[in-house]
Amino acid sequence: MQTAIVLHHYPASPFAEKIRLFLGYKAASWRSVEIPMVMPKPKLMPLTGGYRKTPVMQIGADIYCDTALILDELHQRLPDPLLIQEGALSDITLAAFADSSLFAAAVSWVFQPSAMADFFRGKDEAFVQAFLADRKAFRAASTAPRPSLGQAKDRLVIALSGLEQQLSDCRSFVWGASPSRADFCLFHPLWFVQQAQSAAVLLDDYPQVGLWLERMSDFGHGNPEPMSADEALALATVCEPAAIEGPEAARLTTAQAAEGLQLGAWVEIKPNDYGMDPVHGRLCYADQNKLVIAREEAGLGLLHVHFPQLGYQAQPSQA
Ligand SMILES: N[C@@H](CCC(=O)N[C@@H](CS)C(=O)NCC(=O)O)C(=O)O
Description:
Elements: E1 6-9, H1 14-25, E2 29-34, H2 45-48, E3 56-59, E4 62-65, H3 67-77, H4 88-110, H5 113-119, H6 125-138, H7 149-166, H8 181-195, H9 197-200, H10 207-217, E5 223-226, H11 229-238, H12 254-258, E6 266-271, E7 279-286, E8 290-297, E9 301-308, E10 312-316
Parallel strand pairs: 1-2, 2-5, 4-9
Antiparallel strand pairs: 1-3, 3-4, 6-7, 6-10, 7-8, 8-9
Helix pairs in contact: 1-3, 1-8, 4-7, 4-8
The structure holds glutathione (GSH).
Glutathione binds next to α1 and α3.
């Protein structure tokens, strides 16, 4: 139980779909905690300390924020089947483009007036208003403005034409016969477009992309078993964070040290694009890939909260 993979997510979340699909690719068994689509998230905040984005992964008393980090952590734990490693820099660049620019374009495209009704189908007016108000506040201080509808369409068309061309030599995935990080990252914004019927017509002109979307969807979601939010909190309470191995002082990069970060000292970590809610704790691990903070949560005890280094800012803070 201690090592069970717990995903806190909701069905309509594209970033969560990236991770659900990755768990499917790995044929993993996991526990599924459904969280609210809007704030407040009273049973998630005690785990993250303030990070509110979706999804969040929990393994015992270790909490993983951001799908870039979650994917890497899962891949380390479940190395089979492989992820294509060729063109590592191209893979990282394409993954980052898909998670930022392409995702933003997909959101603008799906939230155009004619398609929005598809997204909100089955939800009542009060939910729609609450959702729109929540997302307005979520993006209020955003450093990444939403593209206009026209810009969104142009960006989607550029990505779709490029992907169509890339797949036209009969390869199954972006870089070859097996999927890579980029496949999972490109998938989720396009999956989001696919979900809203009137938005999805844009995909019709790209048959190779359509087949690739099918191939990716075929990975499924692995074996999720529902878990209540209370069970997840109870799990964190009975578990200790995994030990951090090795000589700690060697891990800070020179840039992190120059910014005043110190292992054991208080820090504040927050995303640098949108939803910039800070999380406070003592820095217990830092290297060029990730930052981990230790926090004591009343009723839950000690938790380690993990963030990727890319896309986050960390600065010294008060207790
Ligand atoms: N960089 C983050 C982005 C996550 C993200 O933006 N998720 C959206 C849902 S797909 C979100 O958090 N929306 C607000 C919410 O769920 O409260 C990641 O890779 O996990």
